């Protein structure tokens, strides 16, 4: 790795998970103005299909530093130049961001979800059900001298987070649609609240949209409040429960075969689940 001075106009920035924070850029700009850039950015040469350099560089880490220098009117910036595979570039950028404290819960979940995809792309043997799902996160099908940790073990070692929290964060990102994540990105009460994100992730996508719209419109205090209301609306009233229970008792008495009883019970449970889902969505759309 070498440190060079690179023209800012030659640095390419891909779409990035971590959004620019204007307050962080302003703070960095003040520091750079007074002390200079103490920590060079990280870039890699942009190559043609046959591996030839074209004089452009792709940013790996240091987006805020680059933007601060740009706002100061600087045309060049100190940069560490590395040549690594694309997957490794993204992993390096994500790892740097995860080790910082300013990511909110949504951003951290998105970073971890992408890190999981990239890590398992690089080490396919660590995927669940492959060689990496073994004891203590180490592959068990094909042992080698250089055993590779599973994604959660590797990430825990690099970030200091627990494996359980890493797995929960990945589920948040994977279970909330991209459209919904973009809609709540600047809504701190949801995006920076792990309980709210977990509640949102527990809903189907149509319900997610309606729930977020209700919170943004001020019709509900939180996603969890909406879920509580849905559960209460779907719960049968006491006077409705007694006839239903009585009917079930009669049906059980009239059924001679235990196998038939089991079949009817399963059919009734399935029908009740479908009706509850329909009622839940109908209620959500009517209320919000």
Can you walk me through this structure?
It is a single chain. The protein is of the alpha/beta class and 288 residues long. Strand 3 (41-47) and strand 4 form a beta hairpin. The chain has 3 domains: 2-83, Conserved hypothetical protein from pyrococcus furiosus pfu- 392566-001, ParB domain; 86-171, no CATH class; 176-288, no CATH class. Helix content is 58%, strand content 10%. It has a 5-stranded mixed beta sheet with strand order 1-5-3-4-2, with helices on both faces. It contains 13 helices and 5 strands. It is globular and about 75 Å long. The relative contact order is 0.08. The longest helix has 30 residues, at 258-287. The model is unreliable at 131-135 and 138-145 (pLDDT under 50).
Could you tell me how far the N terminus lies from the C terminus, measured between alpha carbons in angstroms? 56 Å
Strand content: 5-15%
Low-confidence stretches: 131-135, 138-145
SSE order: EEHEEHEHHHHHHHHHHH
Number of strands: 5
Q: Describe the biggest sheet? A: 5 strands, mixed
Number of domains: 3
Helicity level, as a percent range? 55-70%
Q: How does the helix and strand content classify structurally?
A: alpha/beta
* Mean residue pLDDT: 78
Write the layout of secondary structure elements.
Layout: E1 2-7, E2 11-12, H1 22-35, E3 41-47, E4 53-61, H2 63-71, E5 76-81, H3 86-98, H4 105-122, H5 151-159, H6 163-175, H7 178-184, H8 188-191, H9 194-201, H10 205-216, H11 223-234, H12 238-254, H13 258-287
Parallel strand pairs: 2-4, 3-5
Antiparallel strand pairs: 1-5, 3-4
Helix pairs in contact: 1-2, 3-4, 4-6, 5-6, 6-9, 11-13
């Amino acid at each position: 790795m070498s440190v060079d001075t690179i023209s800012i106009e030659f640095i390419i920035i891909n779409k990035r998970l971590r959004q620019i924070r204007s307050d962080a850029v302003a703070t960095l700009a003040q520091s750079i103005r007074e002390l200079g850039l103490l920590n060079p950015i990280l870039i890699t040469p942009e190559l043609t299909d046959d591996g030839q350099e074209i004089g452009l560089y792709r940013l790996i880490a240091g987006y805020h530093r680059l933007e601060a220098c740009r706002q100061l009117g600087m045309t060049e910036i100190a940069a560490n130049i590395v040549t690594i595979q694309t997957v490794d570039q993204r992993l390096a950028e994500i790892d740097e961001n995860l080790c910082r404290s300013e990511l909110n819960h949504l951003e951290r979940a998105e970073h971890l979800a992408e890190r999981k995809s990239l890590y398992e792309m690089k080490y396919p043997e660590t995927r669940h059900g492959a060689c990496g799902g073994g004891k203590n996160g180490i592959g068990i099908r094909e042992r080698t001298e250089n055993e590779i940790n599973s994604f959660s073990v590797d990430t825990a070692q690099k970030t200091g987070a627990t494996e359980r929290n890493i797995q929960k964060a990945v589920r948040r990102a994977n279970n909330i649609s991209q459209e919904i994540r973009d809609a709540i990105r600047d809504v701190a009460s949801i995006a920076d609240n792990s309980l709210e994100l977990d509640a949102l992730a527990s809903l189907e996508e149509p319900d997610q949209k309606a729930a977020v719209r209700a919170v943004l419109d001020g019709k509900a205090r939180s996603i969890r409040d909406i879920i509580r209301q849905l559960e209460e609306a779907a719960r049968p009233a006491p006077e409705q429960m007694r006839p239903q229970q009585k009917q079930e008792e009669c049906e059980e008495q009239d059924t001679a075969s235990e196998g038939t009883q089991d079949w009817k019970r399963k059919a009734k449970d399935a029908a009740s689940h479908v009706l509850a889902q329909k009622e839940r969505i109908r209620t959500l759309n009517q209320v919000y």
